[in-house]
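Researcher: Next entry in the queue.
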Amino acid sequence: MPAKLAPLLAIAAALFLAACDRQPAAPPATGPAMPAVTLQLNWKADPEFGGFFAAQLNGDFEKRGINVKVVEGGVGAPTIQMVGSGSVEFAIVSADEVLIARARGNHVVPLFAVYQICPQGLMAHAERGFKEIGDIFGQSGTVAMEKGLPYVKFLQNKYKFDKVTVVEPSGDLSLFRSGANVTQQCFVTSEPIAAKRAGIETRTFLIADAGYNPYTAVMVTSEAYFKANPALVKAVVGAVRDGWAAYLANPGPANTLMQNLNPSMDAETFAAAAAAQKPLIETEETKAHGLGSMNPERWDTLAKQLVELGVIEKAPSLMITRVVPAPQTQPAKP
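Model: Structure for this entry, 334 residues:
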């Protein structure tokens, strides 16, 4: 088992707080003098990224003196490699990706965690009568999951797969609709909404309820960029926090912007996804410490799980940031 990471994380957090106190936020700038950076998303424009687009729409980046270009991703977008190589300054990844990358020498730094509760889940037909996630593996059936993902290894280690057949997901609802004995992986903000609109009654179980709960939609930068530009990084995080506060209060304007970028998703789905994800983003932890905040012990637990699952050999050192929450530049519109 790896040594406890929490003391190291706490020290790193304290050092960053001290640095933030010494470094003023980036001064207002206009025109060509405004620093321009890129935030690379790992998927198309949808409510998972609503706060980033809200910050762009509301001018939160510009108010802090930065020009941030938010770029859509897609299937297999190599965001962790992009930020590690310096081809983009900021990117969106998952917490387990951060630890795996650092274990392999890609020193990315987590800055802001959108989802405090991981939205990854398993969607079953309601008629199966499952009450909890373990019930899925206690009866015969088919479970569509990507076998190489850490959460799948975690579930196999905990529940065994001796009564179910695990297959690769189809990418849509076609396999799920083929029979009531099919359960499939999902994001609670996506597939369950699509199934409901298709008239299929479902029951969704969060992987977090089984004990695997990595932060999701984590904004990162490279350690080199972080150390070279502490004031700019602080300004970006502050603007992102303001953007997410505004989006959670009123997702409509940013949803309209995102739908123009991603017209395959209709307005009703945007609204439903925004509502479904809100309790996973705004929690008691974020109410106490600010949106996007991260707990060192959570990272320590995740690192131990990845080691136990054989995903990484040992827990890497990790610089975790705790930017002091800044007040909103203006109150979010109700």
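Model: The radius of gyration is 20 Å.
Researcher: Noted, moving on.
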